[in-house]
Description:
It contains 11 helices and no strands. The protein has helices at about 5-35, 55-75, 80, 85-100, 105-125, 135-140, 145-170, 175-205, 210-240, 240-265, 270-295.
Amino acid sequence: MGISSDNIRGLVLAVSSSIFIGSSFIIKKKGLKKAGTTGTRAGHGGYSYLYEPWWWAGMITMIVGEVANFAAYAFAPAILVTPLGALSIIFSAVLAHFILEEKLHVFGVLGCALCMVGSTTIVLHAPQERKIESVKEVWHFATEPGFLVYTFLVVIVVAVLIFRYVPRYGQTHMIVYVGICSLMGSLTVMSVKAVGIGLKLTFERMNQFKYYETWVFTVVVTFCCVLQVNYLNKALDTFNTAVISPVYYVMFTTFTIIASMIMFKEWDSQDASDIATELCGFVTILLGTFLLHKTKDMGKSPSVAVSPVFTSPDLNPTPNSNSR
């Protein structure tokens, strides 16, 4: 299948976005570490990072990346744009190795290569962007029963995670913070795509901001982004960046593709062979991120070679630590 001009624009924007977002993880982590030495750490509910220039530099870098990502969704389908986030994993893992001294093993490099292969496979077989003439069309997709059920389930699960599991397991189980970001992220992407299409059509002299639906999507994007940034900060401050990036990517991409399949039905225009190839590309990316995760502690002593996804990040407790 040939790649359309809109898909190429989306591809370029998505790759640029990954570079900026991958860098922002490292810059923000550096700011969070500096802020933690002078105030309450973000992982413990503190907000001293708001006074740290490095954190703001990382935040600006992330915003630039998200703007590029935002624009990418206006040109290309989510199933093409979202998996390319794997490139941000590679970028952040390499930078973490050199700047934060979070070791990247040779098998981590192999994981990066698998992510690249999987991303290329998806790009070559991605579906064409659906022709949409108005935000009202997107609203119609969003209010169909299937997507309404998905949205309801996401909101319920996120509420349970925030009010029940964050207080109990937020500091010891990274999956709690990342789960909140990933689930809300899938709704963010669907709303971002709607607003992006609205902006694109408005620039083509078909004003979409006269419809209340565009503003509803804008409010959803704002709310979801604020929630994601808050819990992503907590995850970055508490756990290893080299692990956060791949785990967040896998969960976020999975939920986004599910949401996109339900809402836009992007696979309806493809044959079985293209769908199977895209799934193989996605599985290849998952294998790459899994390899990055499982080999992050390779070379360290066995006493610390444990996964922070399900265990406490405090791998070296002091003798005076009080158990509760």
